[in-house]
Amino acid sequence: MSLVSLERAPPGLHLEYLSAAEYQARPSADVLGIAAFNGASLDEARPADAPLARVRTPVLYGDTEVCEVWRCSDPLTSGGHNRVRFRRCDELLFGCIAVAEEEVAGLHAATTLAYDEICTTLDTSGYLHLLRVWNYLPDINREAGGTERYREFNTARQQALRAGGRLLAGKVPAASALGATTGSPLVVYFLAGRTAPTFVENPRQVSAYHYPRQYGSHSPVFSRAALVRHSGSLALFISGTASIVGHRSTHVGDIAAQTRETLVNIEALLRQANAAASGTHFDLGSLAGKVYVRRPADLPIIQAQLAPALAAGAHFVYLQADICRQDLSVEIEAAAIRPLGAGATPDARQ
Q1: Which of 101, 117, 201, 331 is catalytic?
Q2: Which residues have C-beta within 8 Å of that of residue 271, sequence separation ≥ 6?
C-alpha cells in the first residue's frame, strides 16, 4: 500500500506518512524531522542533520517500514543539546531523544533525563512552548517495583516538568504515550514553538491532568488537543484518544464499540477545535495519523469500524502497540493542517 501525504497547506508546516522506499525516492532538504517505525532505514536519504526518532512498533498493514515526515518550507537550521537532536525554522522546532534504561538505572531515571534535556533545550533555544509530544516506552503495562510502568513514567515526567518550570495542568501540550517493543529505549519526539498554542479539551472527558488518584499518584500531563498557527495555516494536533468517557474506560472487551467510542471522542474534539478557530474547518477527512492496536488479530474489526467513518481524504497508519490502560485495545492520534481563512485566528480564550 502506498501511503498518501496529508493535504499540504500553503507554505509552512506539513506532514506525510510514507513507506521507506517512497521517502528515499524523493528526499528533500525541507525535512524538519522524521519518526521511523519498525526499523525503517533512512540514513542515506534524509538530510544528514535532520533528527530521526527510531520507534520500534511493528506496522500492521501495508508497507512494513513507515516514516512520519514533518516538513517545513521555511529556512531550517539544526542543532543539539546533549542527547536531544533538533531542527528548527523561525517559529517551530522538531526534536527527539532516546534513552536506554540500562544506561541510567531504569525507566524513572530515563524519563527524568529525557524531560530534563528537553526542557533545557527549549529554554536555551527560545522555543519555550511544547506543542505536541510523542512518548514510546517498552512494556508500558508491566508491573515494576510495585507499580505499573506507565504510572512510573507519569510520575517522572511530572516531576521533571515541574523542575523545569513547566505547567502541569491547563496549558500543557497535546501528547501520547504508547508501548514499544521490549528492549527498546525510551524514545520521545516533539514539536515546540515560540508562541503558545490554543489548548483544546473534550467536554465528554475529564481532562487527563485532573484524573483521580485511582489512575496513579501523578496524573498524565497533556491536553486533549492543541491548535497551532504557522505561516498562514492552522495545525490541529489530537492527542492519543481512546474509549474513555469521563475518566473511565468504556466497552471493555468489545473492540468494535471501543473503536466507535474513540471516533465519537475525536469528533467532539473536532467540534471544539472548530469553535476555537473561526474561519478554518477540520473534519474526519482532513486527518492523518496513527491507529495503535494492542492485538494484531483485532485489526480487521477496527478497520471495519473506521472505514465507513473516515472520508477518503483521511490517511492513517496502523501500528501494534500496547495502550496505556490494559483494558483498552485501540487508540487513535491525528493531525490536520488547514489554510487559515481571511482574518481567522484561534480563540486565545480557550
Answers
A1: 331
A2: none
